[in-house]
Design brief:
Elements (H helix, E strand, L loop, with lengths): L25 H4 L4 H12 L3 E6 L2 E6 L2 H10 L11 H6 L13 H14 L2 H6 L1 H17 L5 E2 H18 L2 H4 L2 H17 L3 H4 L1 H4 L2 H35 L11 H12 L3 H16 L2 H14 L1 H14 L16 H13 L9 E2 L4 E3 L4 E3 L4 E4 L1 H5 L46 H18 E4 L13 E3 L3 E3 L4 E6 L1
Parallel strand pairs: 2-7
Antiparallel strand pairs: 1-2, 3-11, 4-7, 5-6, 8-11, 9-10
Helix pairs in contact: 5-14, 7-8, 7-20, 8-15, 8-16, 10-13, 16-18, 16-20, 17-18, 17-20
The structure holds protoporphyrin IX containing FE (HEM).
Length: 485
């Protein structure tokens, strides 16, 4: 495949020098955060695209908006697959989920089921009472601890966990303490999938019996724990469905119900349902709460932005209400700008999940030939801070979305310098759910409380060091003192 306006033969993308035997360019990624090392390497060796070898795996790193557009829009179909790995095969039941599934009939079916039946804007709207109730629980906890330092990292993580547990499996999930088990399991998945996996970079090793036994054994233990939890949940739901009258059947209340009611239509095996549920647990927690935490970090470090946001939220919410509702946030334009700016500076993954080239493809005006089988990662963090598109790119300035060149820029996937949710066939399916959750929680934190740092701490003392896993997170926990407004 080639772009139409190309005149010269495409070449291999540039690569950094110093490729070593066996490890390739891995030593150049170093101990820094991968998205930062890759941005710095790209600036020197391939500002649009750069080919590196991570162990034995040829990997294209995409770092400019025009190259991202080539991969995610112009040649979206050619780059819409995912690399296989022994770990995702085990944990995601043969990669039969939507996140890690290779492109093909199964992926299209799985993605359709998720976008149409679980995460469409209408479906997300139907979970409004659940969201509002979970937000109220957070507000009650904060009121209880008012005037004392609160571990906001932990509070926001529990909020995101509990909310996703309830949308997946109804209220009884939390009541029976299963959300604790699930929290452990998501952490175990992250340790496996987010860590450095030898077998992913040296596929030859995966064929060696000792390595496959070690890595596979660890993954199988986690998988068995997921099986236990999810089989119980599915069996409980099946029993309740059997006991229901025909009329009740109209109401699919949670994700498990919805998937069970569509199982025949889509021809899903029980394992596929389990894989899709793990996706939702996994993608729905360690994204939303980290963005909320970063929003609070940025706001506490910029008191004038925090004050402006509070003014907006408090002036729009009707007098006498004890909390902000989802109707109230429709006109909160500064709230939305604050959330965009937080997502711009802190996109949770930093990089996309790896894509895989399905066929040979010439990209960026036919300049570079990418062979089938190349792994592709788009450095979203680097795009979101690209100096050609953003003024003072490292500064937290929500106003940039209200005036100036980025007025009106949104994260729906058509502005290739701002892609916190990705773009194209592999774009995040949770975008509606994530957006409304971020908005309603942040609006309420602003409406109900004034915020201070623990005594003796100044704004500049708030630690902003990041560490890398499946998502980027802050090294230190965030403690803040809420004061009832
Ligand atoms: C602030 C919150 C979130 C952000 C910034 C975010 C961002 C992303 C990104 C960048 C990708 C990868 C795109 C690619 O590989 O090209 C992704 C994939 C995905 N996200 Fe999200 N996400 C968020 C929340 C959620 C939520 C709440 C859910 C579901 C409940 C979700 C479900 C998924 C799924 C299923 C995929 C895989 C899509 C595919 O491969 O077809 N995400 N997300």
């Amino acid at each position: 495949r080639r772009d139409r306006n190309s005149t010269e033969l495409p070449s291999t993308p540039p690569s950094p020098p110093f490729k070593l035997p066996v490890i390739g360019h891995m030593h150049l990624i170093g101990s820094q955060l991968p998205h930062v090392s890759l941005r710095d390497l790209a600036a020197k060796h391939g500002p649009d695209v750069m080919l590196i070898h991570l162990g034995a795996v040829p990997t294209l790193v995409v770092s400019s908006p025009r190259a991202a557009k080539a991969v995610l829009r112009t040649h979206d179909l050619a780059f819409a697959s995912r690399p296989r790995s022994m770990l995702t095969d085990i944990i995601m039941y043969g990669a039969s989920d939507s996140c890690f599934a290779p492109y093909g009939d199964h992926f299209r079916k799985a993605r359709k089921a998720v976008t149409v039946h679980l995460l469409s804007s209408k479906k997300v709207q139907s979970y409004r009472p659940v969201r509002e109730e979970e937000v109220r629980l957070v507000l009650a906890k904060l009121r209880h601890h008012a005037a004392a330092p609160v571990d906001m990292s932990q509070l926001l993580q529990s909020f995101a966990n509990d909310l996703i547990c309830r949308t997946i499996s109804g209220k009884f999930f939390c009541e029976e303490g299963r959300n604790e088990v699930f929290r452990d399991l998501v952490a175990a998945n992250n340790a496996l999938l987010g860590g450095f996996n030898l077998e992913a970079y040296f596929p030859g090793l995966a064929r060696m019996r000792l390595i496959s036994k070690l890595v596979g054994g660890r993954a199988m233990r986690v998988r068995r724990r997921w099986d236990q939890l999810l089989d119980n949940l599915i069996d409980d739901h099946l029993a309740i469905r059997l006991a229901r009258t025909h009329d009740d059947d109209q109401h699919d209340t949670d994700f498990i119900d919805v998937l069970l009611s569509r199982q025949e239509e889509y021809g899903f095996h029980r394992d596929t349902i389990k894989a899709l549920l793990i996706d939702m647990f996994e993608a729905g927690t360690d994204t939303t709460h980290l963005v909320l935490e970063y929003a609070m970090v940025e706001l506490i470090r910029k008191p004038h932005v925090l004050a402006k946001l509070q003014d907006e939220v408090r002036s729009i919410t009707p007098k006498g209400q004890d909390a902000v509702t989802e109707d109230d946030i429709v006109d909160m334009v500064y709230l939305k700008a604050v959330i965009k700016e937080t997502l711009r500076l802190h996109p949770p993954g930093g990089l996309t999940i790896p894509h895989l080239a399905r066929e040979d493809c010439a990209i960026v005006d036919g300049s570079y030939m990418i062979p089938a089988g190349t792994c592709v990662i788009i450095n979203l963090w680097a795009l979101n801070r690209h100096a050609d598109y953003w003024d003072m790119p490292d500064e937290f300035m929500p106003g940039r979305f209200m005036d100036g060149i980025n007025k009106g820029t949104n994260f729906q996937g058509q502005y290739f310098h701002f892609l916190p949710f990705g773009s194209g066939r592999r774009m995040c399916t949770g975008i509606h759910s994530a957006t409304i959750t971020l908005q309603i929680m942040l609006a309420n934190l602003m409406y109900c409380f004034n915020w201070k740092l623990p005594s003796g701490m100044k704004e500049e003392d708030v630690d902003t060091t990041d560490v890398f896993g499946l998502a980027i997170h802050r090294k230190e926990k965030l403690f803040l003192v809420p004061q009832v407004a």
